[in-house]
Please model this.
Amino acid sequence: MRRFSLFALAMLLAVAFAPAAFAYAASGGGIDLNVYEGEAGGNASAGSLDLNFFLSFFPTGEGINNALDLNLGFFFQPFCGDNVCQGFESCSSCSSDCGACAPYCGDNSCNGSETCSSCAGDCGACASPSPSTSPGGGNNGGGGGGGGGGGGGGGGGGGGSLPELLKKAAVSFENAPKEFSVAQGTFESFEVKFRNSGDVRLTALKLSVDGIPGEWYSIQQEKEYIDQNEVVSFALKISVPANAKVKAYPVFLRFSSDRVSNGYEANLQVKESGAVAEGAVTFRDMRVSNAITSQEGAIVVTVSNSSQSRAEYSAVLDAPHGWVVKEKELQVSIGPGEDEDLVFHFIAPGNEGIASVGVVLTGKAGGQPLSKRFFVIVNKPEAESPMVVVSSIDALLSAFFFVMLTGLVLAFFVAARRMAIAFR
Model:
């Protein structure tokens, strides 16, 4: 047993500290795959082991670094002194993990055996005697001293630190539209913002709309998590069918996360399609198609011709400063009663988060230009695309490296487990 434990320890240290890297360049110069084993450490006698692996992808020519960090921790045998109060430990059997048993001086409670003189931290400072001119005055002075002692006790309680589990999770409205107005057969885009007003990180962020069918709206979100005082933006697009009833729809916008949820009431006013001039081209729909990298994509805007004659327009994308739009101008020819998709490919270098974008249509026969503005999220959340695969061959090789990494983790696990058993 001793010989095996030394062998396992030698193998673990050799793998842990020997620098190794597997590098793979994808066919066609798509990506470089680098796998690093990171570091491994622990205390064999205590039965603990920490493993850290780092897997990173570098798409060549794009300057994009998508990294996947894998941190694993194994613990095999709890013991007194590991800073964790286990189920079999108590304040009497392991005070270093579970703390001293109450009552004791410093537990923020003035117990019967404690006084202001023996434990000022729990019972408050003793009041100084004050001179009096009469028995009545002396009694009144004694009462005042007692009040001072109570104040001291309050101060002692305020000095404690807030436990992690008692930290507050809260979210507040940063930009919360209460009125949404959309014409039949068209769409509108809105920005909704929430702020993390609590003390802990919020993850699994989500926005939903209650009160209307799910196919009436779509949502893009800016982030997967927000830390204290950070803001997350949602791009809410509401598309109303042409046959929707003209009325006010009460809706409820619901924000949810892993720790807290909140929401507010609003109204969706569906207007008549006649609000759009007869014969005019209308903006029916919009969608954003993200490319494989986070700052490239395509914006597709659907326009509809409800007149009895062909509509001739030129279309341009009014993009934020710094965007590169491939299509400078599109020539649009829409037949009577037909729809047409306008596709604009864009690159938004250095831009992240929500952006306001517009499409402008100018009729070739003159007249007032038509325009529509909407909100889009230009960066795809990292949690949705932690890796890049550019071909089926690359996918197979990437899977091969993942299998190697998984085998390495399992080897560490088995060796560490047997080493912990050997040292018991």
User: Anything to note?
Assistant: Confidence is low (pLDDT under 50) at residues 1-10, 12-76, 131-162, 381-397.
